[in-house]
């Protein structure tokens, strides 16, 4: 079944509401009019009853019949029946008086052969139990015709009001939903080549301003992600192009003429280094892909960070001695985390620090145990990093040094991105600070249970 549009639903809702309100008001007006006519008829019949009682006060008087005729002649649509207390009919003022009339005292309404009557039953003598009964009949056919016409007018008004409200509601809904159509047009025009489209938030109604803001923010995130993905793809192609070119060139040169076995062995060893670097690059990319999809699930085991840091410092100590760099560690803390993943993160940061620390410089690890968590800071002395470059340090394949160091697995530009993924997998955050001749990478981790 075809779904109704939002404009059609609003129009039908407006029409239904108007119809209900109009019908309710019309019914109230009709009931009030009917009650008003009943009240007028009651007053008229009560007045006539007093006059008829006065005229019939002395049934034996000669002028009683004359007075009765005179009283009835004043109201052409009024008829009278006089009955005994036993129900025996004594007198009818008109031959059109129905045979069967209500016997209960008070006012009632009947219909006889298409004619409507208001009937009032009352005793002739109020103080006598065996008093004859007077039945006054008032022809109210014209009243009923008026009420019927009014009811038809009410139904016509309800229908026309509902139709007019539906049309006006459809126009109003269409006009009011114009911002949504504008959003739909913008969304329809969004593609990989037009992610810079934005909705004018200042021209949106308050109800849609927040939606427009989040819609624009979503487009901004998509644009940023697409730009990063494009740059990532270009970086992958750039990183793989050099080793592939080296492999092809080296292999082609080796095969240009027959060579000694040792030359072939040397060529294979050279190709093996390139292939190992490419394999490491692919593994790192797969690792980051798992992190992006939330598939990094670190194990939880009690760890002494001081011991883990000391193991890494011992591993890097020969390299530090060659570069005449001093390594040190201070502080300790316990944490529940994945040993291999945390070692890899700290190792990446230490390797980074050693590469950019000048001769006679220092690399320090500071561990601070706090109430709600802990922090690990790896800092090195030397030339700082430009503040504008700090937000991009954790981007994949990004190097603060504009000269790309190609063909080296250690400097592929994925180390900090992997470190950030590991820290986030442990529920922590990492940031970089560079000031006063020191560059610091600060890791903040929760302690866990």
Describe the protein's architecture and organization.
By secondary structure, the protein is α+β, with helices and mostly antiparallel strands. Helices cover 52% and strands 18% of the residues. It has a five-stranded antiparallel beta sheet, with helices on one face. A hairpin with a 2-residue loop joins strand 11 and strand 12 (438-446). Helix 1 (6-55) runs antiparallel to helix 3, helix 6 runs parallel beside helix 9 (415-425) and helix 7 runs parallel beside helix 8 (339-355). Residues 402-410 have low confidence and may be disordered.
Fold blueprint:
Blueprint: H1 6-55, H2 64-73, E1 78-83, E2 89-92, E3 106-112, E4 115-123, E5 133-139, H3 141-176, H4 178-189, H5 206-254, H6 261-292, E6 301-304, H7 305-322, E7 326-330, E8 334-337, H8 339-355, E9 362-369, E10 373-381, H9 415-425, E11 429-435, E12 438-446
Parallel strand pairs: 7-9
Antiparallel strand pairs: 1-2, 1-5, 3-4, 4-5, 6-8, 9-10, 10-12, 11-12
Helix pairs in contact: 1-2, 1-3, 5-6, 6-9, 7-8, 8-9
